[in-house]
């Protein structure tokens, strides 16, 4: 539950609900007990207290009538009258016995001289459906007139003390209101403390985590501990920590790579520069004392300068690829026709080296999305790299096309010296060579396969190598198939 929802429910719990309870309680008391003094007894409403009053009065009236029938003087028996009092006292009522105009007995709860003066006269028109409300807070529910044995007039009254009921109800209302108020205070304090404790606890966790990160501990993890805003915040906080850690790790890796790159560039540039410098010094010292030697020195200097230019160009391209600043011109092409063109183009130079290159494929049309120039560079780099490490008298390069469901896998396989198993994972690293001595007997910048891998990954594909010593090496990469391949295949089948 969100904090907002908790606070809203807490507000209702602390304020609105208790107010509704108090209002409802007071309304019920006013409605069911006294909207005015004369509505207190309404026998038609079963919820009123008077329902119980009438039931008791009926039972007591029956007992009195039986005694009057048998012996009217027995009604004067104090013990009998007190027994009736015990039943009436619980409902704020009592009994009055009058002989002529003299009060012979009255219940303790009804002791009031003014009240006695207002009692109805003998043989009045009073009946059960016409009870009497007196000004001093009493209600006459029933009057039973009869004659004593001596012929004197007798009357038994059943009366209700409204003042006592009102007093007790007011006391009950005040008590209940006090209980509700106290409940509000306890509930509000409990809910406020609970929410405060919950929020502070979660804030302290986030505070501790932020201090850990501030102090450089990026390995400190914080788990989602609730399904509210703090839970979402903890998720965002953890994602921020992970990205920050990854960013720092990448930065450290880049820094390490930068140092290695600087060292490698220095090494690869220093060798041709020293060679150029040496040949120039030879020319200055007159060592090249014949036109043949002079041409040899100048051609060597030119070749070394060209190698440096190639290295610088590849460094520039690699840097742009690494920074994602190289633009690509993707097109939907038939990769079969394109590879045929590449094989035909490369075969002229390879024939001079007694090498053979072939394309092996069963289908005539497979469409992929690729940048033609960048893809040509990938294939040329792989083939050139294969020829540099070729040790066979009859070099052979096979290009195999494997049609998968969503990708096309292109394999460039040679029969060269192979790559040691432990070196295969690193051949796509910049400046890496399986020859640890980094000798210069094999020319090249050491960036060719790294550039190829970045170009293929920019196409949304992948590149890897498989190799066996003295048998050969396979460089494989994937390209995404064009989504319209299915339509082309259907048309070709038709």
UniProtKB/TrEMBL annotation:
The chain crosses the membrane at residues 7-29, 175-196. The keyword Transferase applies. Residues 264-483 form the Histidine kinase domain. Its main location: membrane. Residues 197-249 form the HAMP domain. One of its GO terms (molecular function) is kinase activity. It is an enzyme of class 2 (transferase). Keywords: ATP-binding, Cell membrane, Kinase, Membrane, Nucleotide-binding, Phosphoprotein, Transferase, Transmembrane, Transmembrane helix, Two-component regulatory system. InterPro entries: HAMP_dom, HATPase_C_sf, HATPase_dom, His_kinase_dom, HisK_dim/P_dom, HisK_dim/P_sf, HssS/ArlS-like, Sig_transdc_His_kin-like_C. This is histidine kinase. The lineage of its organism: Bacteria, Bacillati, Bacillota, Clostridia, Peptostreptococcales.
């Amino acid at each position: 539950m969100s904090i907002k929802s908790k606070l809203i429910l807490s507000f209702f719990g602390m304020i609105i609900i208790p107010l509704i309870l108090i209002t409802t309680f007071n309304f019920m008391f006013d409605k069911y007990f006294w909207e005015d003094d004369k509505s207190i007894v309404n026998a038609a409403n079963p919820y009123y207290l008077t329902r119980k009053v009438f039931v008791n009065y009926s039972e007591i009236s029956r007992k009195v009538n039986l005694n009057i029938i048998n012996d009217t003087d027995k009604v004067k028996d104090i013990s009998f009258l007190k027994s009736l009092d015990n039943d009436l006292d619980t409902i704020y009522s009592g009994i009055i016995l009058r002989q002529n105009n003299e009060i012979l007995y009255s219940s303790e709860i009804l002791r009031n001289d003014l009240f006695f003066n207002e009692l109805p006269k003998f043989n009045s028109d009073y009946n059960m459906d016409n009870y009497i409300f007196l000004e001093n807070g009493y209600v006459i529910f029933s009057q039973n007139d009869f004659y004593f044995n001596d012929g004197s007039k007798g009357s038994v009254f059943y009366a209700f003390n409204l003042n006592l009921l009102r007093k007790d109800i007011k006391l009950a209302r005040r008590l209940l209101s006090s209980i509700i108020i106290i409940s509000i205070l306890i509930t509000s304090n409990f809910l406020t403390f609970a929410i405060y404790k919950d929020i502070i606890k979660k804030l302290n966790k986030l505070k501790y985590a932020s201090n850990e990160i501030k102090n450089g501990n990026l390995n400190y993890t914080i788990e989602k501990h609730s399904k509210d805003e703090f839970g979402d915040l903890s998720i965002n906080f953890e994602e921020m920590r992970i990205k920050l850690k990854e960013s720092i790790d990448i930065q450290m890796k880049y820094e390490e790579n930068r140092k290695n790159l600087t060292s490698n560039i220095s090494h690869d540039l220093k060798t041709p520069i020293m060679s150029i410098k040496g040949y120039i010094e030879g020319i200055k010292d007159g060592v090249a004392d014949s036109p043949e030697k002079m041409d040899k020195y100048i051609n060597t200097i030119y070749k070394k300068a060209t190698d440096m230019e190639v290295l610088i160009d590849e460094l520039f391209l690699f840097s742009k690829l690494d920074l994602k600043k190289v633009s690509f011109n993707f097109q939907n092409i038939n990769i079969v026709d394109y590879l045929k063109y590449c094989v035909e183009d490369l075969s002229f130079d390879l024939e001079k080296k007694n090498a053979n290159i072939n394309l092996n494929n069963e289908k005539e049309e497979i469409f992929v999305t690729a940048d033609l120039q960048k893809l040509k560079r990938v294939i040329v780099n792989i083939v050139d790299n294969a020829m540099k490490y070729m040790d066979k008298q009859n070099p052979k390069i096979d290009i195999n096309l494997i049609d998968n469901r969503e990708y096309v896998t292109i394999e460039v396989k040679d029969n060269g010296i192979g790559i040691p198993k432990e070196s295969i994972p690193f051949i796509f690293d910049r400046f890496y060579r399986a020859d640890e001595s980094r000798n210069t007997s094999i020319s090249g910048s050491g960036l060719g396969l790294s550039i190829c891998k970045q170009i293929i990954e920019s196409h949304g594909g992948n590149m890897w190598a498989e190799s066996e010593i003295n048998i050969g090496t396979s460089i494989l990469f994937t390209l995404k198939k064009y989504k319209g391949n299915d339509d082309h295949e259907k048309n070709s089948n038709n």
